[in-house]
Amino acid sequence: MSPLPVPAPRPRWAAILLAGGESKRFGGRPKATAPIEGIPAIVRMAGRAADTGFDPILAVAGRHVAETREVLATLGTPVVENAIWDAGRTGSIQTGLASVGPVEGALVWPVDHPFVEAKCLATLRSVADGDPMGVWFVPTFEGRGGHPLLLRRPTFDPIASLAPDAPLRSLVPRFGPQVRRVPVDDPGILENADDRTAFDSAQARWAARQREGRWTGD
Asked: pLDDT at position 9, please?
């Protein structure tokens, strides 16, 4: 009897949680530690990434690296320091991509968007697994693009060549049709909680969706 074929392993996708900012508009308090139902935002994000099979998972922090390490210690999630965190967000992305090792690609998830659900992450990964020609996957809700992004390895070197303060979107024309827009049923991708008021408002809308049963958190 011929041996049964061994299924090919699923590609490994890393998750990079970006918490490299000063949180100045958050009153100086680390945004990564802001509670969502009693759980620090970045801990919730790491848990959602783990639930959908991302591995490795790491965070990039700067001004608040000590506080970020403290809250992620219970999960064993490593935190990489971006020494030039004040030079721009792309610098933190570069730090993360340089630290993930041999993976298919990486989820790049800013802590400004902590209300994204696991089902959204699973959709992004499933679409990318089935589309080897795509290299840049953008979730969309009602036609609007949001975060997190899923980036395949061919994007890593071009990103590394950018200035730390250059916008990541400046590379989109370079990849043209390899940039995919992925519809998801998750308004959390659009919630930019960059200050305390925006965070509290986004959390209230997220909690309302939970009560309505729109999301179960899985």
From this structure: 58
- The residue ranges of every structural domain in the chain are 13-211
Helices 41-51 & 118-129, crossing angle to 10 degrees?
40
Residue 108 confidence (pLDDT) above 60: yes
Q: What is the pLDDT of residue 87?
A: 80
* The domain over range 13-211 is classified in CATH as 2.60.40.10: no
pLDDT digits (tens, 9 = 90+) for 134-143: 999 999 999 9
Query: What's the pLDDT at 6?
Result: 45
